[in-house]
Amino acid sequence: MAKEPCTFPSQQDDVPCGTYGETNLFCNFQSADRPTPVSEATDVLQARDDETLIVRATNNKNHPMSSVRTINTKLAHPIAFNYQPGNDQSTPCHWCDDLVYGLLGLGEVNVEVIDHNDGQGYIEIGGGHIAAGYPPSRMCDMCTLQRIMVAACRIHELEPIEDIRPNDFNFDTVVDHMMPGMATLAPFHWCSVCPAPAFFKCCKKMDLGMAEGAVDGDLGCGNGCGLMLCDYCAAILIGETEGSLEALIDRLKLEKANDRFGLRADVDFLHPRGELLRRMELHSNT
Question: How far does Cα 11 stand from its chain's mean position?
């Protein structure tokens, strides 16, 4: 399949894209405007099952049929992927501003959301962080692209991270670095799946022309996809899921992760059926 120019805006104009590895999915993910206000979704049909309520948005011809569901999340929706911070930096990328945001989020809640299935994301309509006064979660283009790179690597190969070993690590220091503003200062990398120190990284050679011209380390393109795992997650990935991150995440969700830390607030963005790749695919089809 021939490669096409990338339509994903980046901080580097010379980052070509094409297909995302084994997914054969062309990148056509662009910054989305804020979704249509919930007030435009009217005439609720009384057709509820355990998960989904069908809504007819009679006032919005662009969204004739939308769905309402309850999701479990630690973030504020709608999430703005590929967010462009203003020049005054008054509203920065939440992930760049504090790594703890991606680790712990804003706290776990069950929130009712409406989804227009148009790639714009969920809109909170009850019980979420928006109602509590938090702004929608903002993720810049580079943080978004880093997660797409990891998700595009379907079967991972791991190698130890240099100069750090589980047997010699003082785990008592981890909690100190989970305080606001402290995660960035941690003398270790964080696991991509759970809020724990990473001891292993993906070393599978990336054959993606999309990362040409990028700075090694920013995207992980020089050596692996950028996935980093703690000892617990690495053992499951290699020993039980045969390198599949999708299967690892599914497994940990079922068992509520390990007893030490739970799952990261943003782990869903690494899943092939997660919100990030689902929205990207919807954009590519429009």
Answer: 19
Question: Does residue 28 contact residue 284 with C-beta atoms inside 8 Å?
Answer: yes
Count of CB atoms situated within 10 Å of the CB of 242: 11
| Closest by Cα among 219, 206, 44, 195 to 146 | 219
| φ/ψ of residue 138, rounded to 5 | -120, 125
- Summarised one tens digit per residue, pLDDT across range 108-151 is 999 999 988 888 889 999 889 999 999 999 999 999 999 999 99
pTM of the entire structure? 0.73
Collapsing DSSP to helix, strand or coil, 21 comes out as: helix
| Residue showing tokens 């809504």 | 55
Alpha-helix runs per DSSP H in 90-215: 94-97, 100-104, 141-152
Token pair 């714009």 in the structure block, residue: 120
CA 13 from chain center: how many Å? 23
What one-letter code names the amino acid at 40?
E
